[in-house]
Amino acid sequence: MRTARIKVKAEVGEAVYHCMTRTVNGERILDDTAREVLRKQLWQIADYCGVQILTYAILSNHFHVLVRVPQRQLPPDVELLRRYQKLYPCPTKYQCARLEVIQAQLVTNGPEATEWRRRQASLMGDISQFMKLVKQRFSVWFNRSHQRYGTLWSERFKSVLVEPQGTALETITTYIDLNCVRAGLVTDPKDYRFCGYAEAVAGNKAAQAGLLSILGGSWSEAQATYRHWLFGTATEARESGAAIDAAILEKVITEGGKLPLSTVLRCRIRYFTDGAVLGSTAFVEAHLQAYRTMTGRRKRTAVRLFPPVAEWNSPLATLRALRKHAFG
Question: CB neighbours of 281 closer than 8 A, spacing ≥ 6?
Fold first, then answer.
């Protein structure tokens, strides 16, 4: 039986989620064209759903996206129509005709208009609906383009509820943008087209707004701060590129040593994809208690602090114990 996803009810308040999904069998089938289509669809569907992409990374067999979901409010009809048209930027004749019918119904404000508003609202302000639309729409495009059929994604997407400010949010953002460095594709994420930081550097206002909501200040100031997070120094990328040697990392963990945070973030950290909740001890404990109240489950689960392998800016905690090595 599937474990219930830990989410903040959209009617209660905003939430931040790190989501990740992988292609079936982990096959490396996302070439540059596919990644470009997926990149555009992420922004398009985020606009429709009324959520904010903070950053993302698309690789050849999976993608990560960090999303802020605001507290749900029904937008006015003008905004609903704008978002609807955003979802269908090149409408068919049927969709054009359908839009005229919808507009007429909204004017009369009858039961059809009420039902249409309800259906649109049900797809907005919900991380599950956002990811469902992204995966479905991209699958349709990919299968048509490659003369294939059947599932494209290996499983339901993973999600981690992230504390919406502070160390957890800063760390997970940096970790996501460093995906291309860990994969050995580039030494600097600004040179990898399919990540949020590269789009922000290239001038994409939505990408800049996502990072600025975390960093604050002007873009020039924020970029200097962010590059320090990425590299642990002022501005320069590391020539060594990807992750540190696994044996070195294992030795440091075994001996109770510590590494610079920028070094550890060049390793795979499974807490960031499998930990269910990420943040301060108080944040994780609060959501554990809410989950227990809602489901009656996880009675033996306890909050787990991150191993002191890095100089975390403040202690980080997670909810789920990991069966595999947490780092590497």
Answer: 303, 305, 315, 317
- From 137, 165, 130, select the one nearest 10 (Cα to Cα): 130
| List of residues 6+ apart from 209 with CB closer than 8 A | 52
Q: What is the dihedral of CA 93, 95, 97, 100, to 10 degrees?
A: -140
Partners of 21 in beta bridges? 63
Beta bridge partners of 67: 17, 53
The predicted-structure confidence for 10-67, as pLDDT tens digits, reads as follows 888 899 999 999 999 999 999 999 999 999 999 999 999 999 999 999 999 999 999 9
CB 272 within 8 A of CB 175: yes
- C-alpha 144/C-alpha 138 separation (Å) is 10
Residue ranges per structural domain of the chain: 15-24+53-69+143-318, 77-123
User: What's the mean per-residue pLDDT of the chain?
Assistant: 87
Residues 6+ apart with CB under 8 A from 235: 224, 227
Lowest mean pLDDT of 88-97, 146-155, 177-186, 258-267, name the range: 88-97
> What are 223's two structure tokens?
């970029």
The residue written with tokens 């955003």 in the block is 86
15-22 β-sheet, strand order: 52-58, 62-69, 15-22, 158-162, 277-279, 317-318, 304-305
* pTM for the whole structure: 0.91
For residue 152, what are its two tokens?
């494209």
Name the token pair of 218. Answer: 């002007």
pLDDT band, very low/low/confident/very high, at 261 (cuts 50, 70, 90):
confident
CATH class of 15-24+53-69+143-318: alpha beta
Q: Which residues are CB-contacts of 277 (< 8 A; sequence separation ≥ 6)? A: 6, 160, 161, 283, 284, 287, 288, 318, 319, 320
Measured distance CA(201)–CA(95) in Å, rounded:
36
